[in-house]
Amino acid sequence: GAVVSQHPSRVICKSGTSVKIECRSLDFQATTMFWYRQFPKQSLMLMATSNEGSKATYEQGVEKDKFLINHASLTLSTLTVTSAHPEDSSFYICSARDPQVSYEQYFGPGTRLTVT
Amino acid sequence: ILNVEQSPQSLHVQEGDSTNFTCSFPSSNFYALHWYRWETAKSPEALFVMTLNGDEKKKGRISATLNTKEGYSYLYIKGSQPEDSATYLCASYSGAGSYQLTFGKGTKLSVIP
Q1: B44-74 as b/e, with b when 16 or more CB fall inside 10 Å?
Q2: If you placed Cys at A26, which of A3, A41, A81, B10 could pair as Cys (CB 3.0 to 4.6 Å)?
């Protein structure tokens, strides 16, 4: 099946710094990628939809200036958490749609962010 | 039902036992229902995508059914093995937007050897 990589798998940063997370589709071109966040014992919550070559669409309550998304190519989307705070500590996971395969989304392994 | 709900939250079964768990989803504006298997430190693995009422799909010892009129899906595992231990996620798609999925919290299965 299709493979999506995500880096880094874990990151610890200090409050006030920015962190960039990369999501890559390795063997297909993804016109659409999704970014989710999961807090402990909660479900995966969609943060934003990233379309190649255009601005991301953010879900209600997600600050677009804090969570910068760039989808500059068909195989790479990045999520930058700017001026991170401890409350941004969470598990972030991306998925990518292969337009050649109906319905399916392929997930990366996720990134555990800890802000100290 | 406004959200996707899964039950139970977790369960432990003995190796060789069969088990099943439930996913409830909004029956209005239904388009597709996904099941994923998620092992720790790995990517969620797609198991099934189901769209039709009454649909039943099977993959080895795992099968799933779908009732779109009442808004539920069952996942069955026959003869559980330790390697089946994982969190099983379901997610629904309502047909809106660019295929955004709404996830349940998952059912964490532990199979005891």
Answers
A1: bebbbbbeeeebeeeeeebbbbbebeebbbe
A2: A3
Share of chain A above pLDDT 90, in %: 76
Q: What is the pLDDT along chain A (116 residues), one digit of tens a residue?
A: 689 999 999 999 999 999 999 999 999 998 899 999 999 989 999 999 998 888 899 999 999 999 999 988 899 999 999 999 999 999 999 999 887 877 788 999 999 999 99
At A98 the pLDDT is: 83
| Neighboring chain B residues of A110 at a CB cutoff of 8 Å | 43
Q: Establish if A35 touches chain B: CB-CB under 8 angstroms.
A: no
Q: Is A34 in Cβ contact with B97 (below 8 Å)?
A: no
* B42:A109 CB<8 A: yes
Q: Is the link from the previous residue into B113 a cis peptide, with omega within 30 of 0?
A: no
